Amino acid sequence: MGTNLRALTATVTTAGVLTTALLGAPPAANARAVPDLTPRETRTAAARPAVARPAVAGTTVTGTAVTGAAAAGAAVSGAGKGKGVIGGDRLADRGIIRPAGIKPPPKTEASAYVIADADTGAVLAAKDPHGHYLPASTLKTLTAVTLIPRLDKNRKVKPSEAACNVEGSAVGIVPEPIYKVDDLMRALLMVSGNDAAVALAEANGGVKKTLAEMNKEAHKLQAYDTVAKTPNGLDAPGQRSSAYDLALIARAGLALPDFREYISTKVAKFPAPKEDPKKKKKKKRRGDAEASESPAPAYYEMANHNRLLGRYKGMLGVKNGWTSKALGSFVGAAKRDGHTVLVVIMHHPGGFWDEVAKLLDWGFAARGKAAPVGQLVAPAPDPKPASSPLAVRASPTPGAADVGAAKARGEDPASNGAGRPATPLLIGGGALAVLALGAYALRRRRRTSGDAAG
After folding, report:
1. Catalytic pick among 77, 111, 169, 192
2. pTM of the model
């Protein structure tokens, strides 16, 4: 199907709203650990073997571990070994991790989750927080966090044919320069446009360059469980993330005003290709009825896929995703009474909206009342450049004491103590050459004048 036709035949509701299929902060002590970047494939819950884990004080273990080459190890792969797990040692556990003294979090079918205070970074409860899972479209949060600071949102973009034909969830772009970066970002985060993700990557210098920057951004955020292989989250070998990492990425996104605007927008206009003028003329000849029809709008209306927007009190949004391998995933943030709570779930087999709402309710109730089980770490500090041994240092300027001492010795302060000026006479090779040529020309002129007179 051609790209123009595909764009014009996008599913539109009776209300005229474009819809598409869902497709998918302070660091704790000794928080940083060397990441294990061995890719792991997520399996179904039934296929996951139980893993013997060392007991962690105060931790309730009720789940099974995510699969992988490091499944038999004592620490979560990608989070470090033994002590020094990113976010705190309790987050090494693969079961449910909850604080003592309050009721446990509501049950969920998700294989992994994190509930955190986005303001303080306190992790309130978790399950397999560092387990590696396919992120599906929740990876688009990393795409946005990486590209929002790099791209001018008013810049016009002409997508390639390849971008327009990306599979899965799409907003229906065409290879015409009718889109701003701002439009594509909305499509990316509101309706999970896989095509918009590739178009944005192209605008940033290409998919390869963008993926390198996404992975660099993940490491900067200390999201060491995350490996991006696509800009849109479509399943790819080696691609992965964790509930903990997605919470880090979402927290970084919430610090960006444009990100907050995109994720909280319920309905927005999206540019559409204008009708071919030749086709308009043909329509006018067919009769008065068709000629009197109003022209097609030069935009669509797209509705945010987040079903909790407008339904859950204080919902800010963020991102949901789904593929047949990743199953359901969701990153959500809500704000009440000046406090923001984050919930991330991964690898959910069915509908999760009601479960997410209950997890958010629990987070608001537990915030400030229970000891955190971990911490969302702050971004890694930028390395300070070392001073170069070849750095040019300025010559010291004589001070008043030096001038006074020279006068006391009877020397000229402007000299170097030997009767010569303190400022060296620097004559470069070019100046010497000019003087030599001048002397030679003078001698030749005198000799030539003498011959003529003789």
Report:
1. 192
2. 0.69
